[in-house]
Write a structure and sequence with these properties.
The structure is a homodimer of 175-residue chains. Chain A has eight helices and eight strands. The first copy, chain A, has helices at 3-6, 65-69, 91-94, 101-127, 130-140, 144-147, 150-157, 161-172, and strands at residues 12-15, 20-22, 31-36, 38-44, 50-57, 61-63, 77-80, 84-89. Chain A has a four-stranded antiparallel β-sheet. In chain A, strands 2-7-4-5 form a four-stranded antiparallel β-sheet. The structure holds a DNA duplex (30 and 30 nucleotides).
Chain lengths: 175, 175
DNA sequence: CGCCGAGTTGAACTGAATCAAGAAACGTGG
DNA sequence: CCACGTTTCTTGATTCAGTTCAACTCGGCG
């Protein structure tokens, strides 16, 4: 996706499982592109509950660029679910005053792909039941259930671990 | 926002209340920028229910560019809630092979603003109750309740008109 | 071994959906 | 400008998906 950008000699940084890449309330949001491993971005609400905004595995990116656009502090936490290697882009890298137009097209393309994922997520949160959302999650990310604990999938779907457990076993007994 | 782009001699087109600008299942998605009036983009699910994805009033845009990024057909309907005047951009206008970098920065900026709105929407759908979502809707779009029928606000919030009616009158009697 | 976090199962509860009926608002045509 | 039918909004009764709370199992790790 953004591979070409990375040829520019950008170095990777390593994070071990559980390590934090970004906290809530920071001034500037960086963009993390996953070379290897798995990241998650999430919020913690007033009741202390975690809600996972996105997973990012190899080739995907995790970031809070959204909060940049409002010039506000970061709202998301980002940490590593597995030992990971990531490229780190500064905000300035995203809006270059640069010369090369290909970079721009790549960026626009990447942003639009991301918006596509977000659009689907919104529509599915509005119109689909927990079970339907889980089933389409499996379609879109077939490998994630093997790498991510159930409770995180629940936090991504917007339901409780108990509810997801029940859904799973209904599917297993197909009813 | 994209005002500068529009100096390029782009013409507006008029649509009267209720008129369709885009249907589901079309090949190419255009971008509609609202000069005057109010648009909505929405899906109709299998049960025939409408779910409003976004409202677009003066200065905002309505589009299904998201589906472009997957090279798939449009999934959204777009129509006019009020008599409206809109600029119409072709997809090609969005990814110019052009010369001017300022255009690009404008586009990236616009896309990121849009993603900001989407991020907030996702997080609020996951973590907030119907009432909380309605209250923050009022904050963000204080003028829309006067221009949009209740049932459309409900379709935007992801709840039924009945539920929204109940919420309203609870707020009125503040409990 | 014994502990601890992760997952499961079940009972009681709750916010929102559904269904139904009536009241208000709102075009449109005469 | 009024009368009409249609859509929009409200209110209440019932149902249901998903939450909360609690108890129990299992597998890993000290």
């Amino acid at each position: 996706m953004l591979d070409q950008l990375l040829k520019k000699g950008l170095k990777t940084k390593s994070f071990s499982k559980g390590e934090m890449l970004q906290r809530e309330g920071q001034k500037s949001a960086k963009v993390f592109i996953v070379k290897k491993g798995l990241l998650r971005s999430y919020i913690i609400d007033e009741k202390g509950k975690e809600h996972i905004y996105m997973f990012a595995s190899e080739g995907w990116l995790a970031s809070d660029i959204e909060s940049q656009s409002f010039k506000s502090n970061t709202v998301l936490f980002i940490d590593a679910i597995e030992d990971s290697e990531v490229y780190i882009l500064e905000p300035s890298d995203l809006t270059p005053n640069a010369e090369s137009l290909e970079d721009y097209n790549l960026i626009v393309d990447t942003l639009m792909k991301r918006m596509g994922v977000m659009q689907r997520r919104i529509l599915s949160l509005m119109s689909a039941s927990a079970r339907e959302r889980y089933e389409s999650f499996l379609q879109i990310y077939p490998e994630l259930p093997n790498r991510v604990p159930l409770k995180m999938i629940a936090a991504y779907l917007g339901i409780t671990p108990e509810a997801l457990s029940t859904i799973r076993n209904k599917i297993a007994k197909n009813r």
